[in-house]
Fold:
Amino acid sequence: MGRGLSSPNRSLRFMKRPRVNLRTPRVIVSQVRLFFARLVYYTLFGLLFAGVFYFLFFSEWLEIHNLSVEGNNIVDQKTILGTAEPYLHKKRFWIFPSNNFFLVPVRQIEKELLGNYKRISSVEIKKFLPHSLVISVKEKKAVLLFCSDKGCTWVDEEGVAYNKSTYTEALNLNVGVVIIQDNSGKAIPLGSAATSAKLVAFANGIAKNFTEITRKEVGFLSVPLPSAEEIRVHTKEGWIAYFDINFDLEKSLALLDQTISQNLAEEQKSTDCLEYVDLRIVDRIFYKLKPEYSEDSKKAEEENPPGDQDSQNQNANKAGEKKDSKKKKN
Structure:
């Protein structure tokens, strides 16, 4: 009997299971709601992301409209802009506009400008929100010009040739550049070391200090060839001063001034008598007089009778005159 009574209890236990099944639709509904909630969330997030993405990379608000150049003195602004602007009308990664504030090909523009314009030593591109681009260039400092019948070559502080122009163009720029006449007759290739930095500094020192120390005006400077270690100063009076760039310029100019103000003054001669002055030997100076002044003694001999030995001695050497007169008296 006990076993017989247990069978209904078991059936009752099994009959409780459908109650659990009655709750199953609620679980399904909650899962569906969660799915749609997630779908809406990801959709909104995707739309937001797409909007931000479009705003950052395709919106006109972040397009570069204002393009300007600063720091240029010699290179024309229109030329620089003409080189940079084509890069703003291309596509980046086949899709994105290159005139976008974040996608401007800065490195390519800088490389292009440095390669095309040897006068530019550095380029820095600055971006300003929302649509401004400033190309800041730094030009090489023009400190020297080598000019010949083949034209003029611009040289920077390191002695590197970076540009060519005519002599007239160089004068019209009026940038206070030292001009040296190149007597080599050879063309100077751009990008090469035309001369040494020492010669560049020495030439600028001469241009600055020669007239101030010697009180003689410089006509022009010349070199036998750009790589030489000497500079020739052609004065407006017509005489030439030879300098060695390995010597101290101030000492050489002081020695030249001493020769002009003392040695020539003792001989009662001016610098108009000079043909050249050579300062290429350390702590020494040699000078040569023009032929018409160096032959004074010969003219004096022609003016005196051939037999007048005393007069000839006076014109030749005062010290010799005294000795000869003493001998004659004896």
Summary: The chain has three domains: 61-139, 144-293, 295-329. The first strand starts at residue 66 and ends at 70.
